[in-house]
């Protein structure tokens, strides 16, 4: 079966084929466009690229080109510009060169040379992050891992898959579906497994299945000096030594570059029920979240959308949804009859909280219809405000504090163009504010709202980022959240990366 993702871009890569007998990939000569979805031109080109002092000398260019060949080394302006920004508002920063390694050995040799020469190295997955995580703020080189996109093995009987870092999780799940399996974390964008591990991504199904870190069993990591280590095992449990897999998961490439992983899989449920419930107020909707979770029900996903989000979706997508605070829920089980029984409890809880409408359907098509609404959110918001950039806030609090935080947020952003939604079942809330960063007065107001919301989340014993990672946008809150333990993180960074070359400028204030 041939897999070929076609999206806009300017550079062609070989695609791959999955061999049904072995599950392994083979290179073909068929072109594959970059899988990075470009943000609209007016959203990113208004702001000038940051420039940094050059690190690469002619001898470095000759050496690095010799490692990967001229076809996988580029200093072209369009390629560098493509790798200068992610999906966030943060100012683009040009790398000096982009390299596309094809295996762990090449990554090791490149990083070892960069360490010796003191050249900054920034790993790149799909560029879909929202906090500036892969922006090469110190220049140097970007290692684009999208050519390392092989599915190495599917071990159905062990519920495991071995993948390279550049595999896109949606493509992985399309293949696994034939085996009745899936990789649960679902951040929505066309993210790579390596990027998901680097940010500890989660998404709409985290309420039931958890985050990416819960599915990482083994890692192959290239350390900042070029050394290759392998952490973890294929055993489902272990009490052996420090958990290095968790250390590198969520480290955003600041401690090393993940090149391969063994990930845990889950069995696909036999039946699904999709539910959309609307409410007269935000408080009614968020209170319902707490009561459903407290009841012992186990939703596979539970999402909150405020009325403004629904209004944007209606206008952008030609929908006719009720423009009220809305919960999107998914339940799964062994049979449709079991789901019907579960639905009686859901209906009672929703009606007790003044539910206005309950729209439900059983089966994969209804499930797809429900989540298309949620996955279109970011794109529809941006399309509704051409020429503006988005500051995406991503905080999380204990479930009992969720309703109070949402109320606080609504008051805080009342005079901004802001949209509130999130993974309500695990206390994660997103706030997207659309504005113009070049208008200093306006943007100062946006950033003050950001600070107030994050501080309130921390005061409620939550976190400054539930799933987007620290990157550039959350560095200033790290000391507030972690206190003295931040110094321990800095010591780990200094121990593994004494020259500070790995994704510099991220994580720490």
TrEMBL record:
GO BP field: lactate catabolic process
Cofactor dependence: FAD
A Pfam family this chain is assigned to: FAD-oxidase_C
Origin superkingdom: Bacteria
FAD-binding PCMH-type domain ranges (all copies): 91-268
SUPFAM superfamilies listed in its UniProt record: FAD-binding/transporter-associated domain-like, FAD-linked oxidases, C-terminal domain
GO terms for MF: D-lactate dehydrogenase (cytochrome) activity; D-lactate dehydrogenase (NAD+) activity; FAD binding
InterPro entries in the cross-refs: FAD-bd_oxidored_4_C, FAD-bd_PCMH, FAD-bd_PCMH-like_sf, FAD-bd_PCMH_sub2, FAD-linked_Oxase-like_C, Oxid_FAD_bind_N, Vanillyl_alc_oxidase_C-sub2
Entry's EC annotation: 1.1.2.4
Swiss-Prot/TrEMBL keywords: FAD, Flavoprotein, Oxidoreductase, Transit peptide
Family, similarity comment: Belongs to the FAD-binding oxidoreductase/transferase type 4 family.
Name the UniProt record assigns to this protein: D-lactate dehydrogenase (cytochrome)
Species this protein is from: Syntrophus aciditrophicus (strain SB)
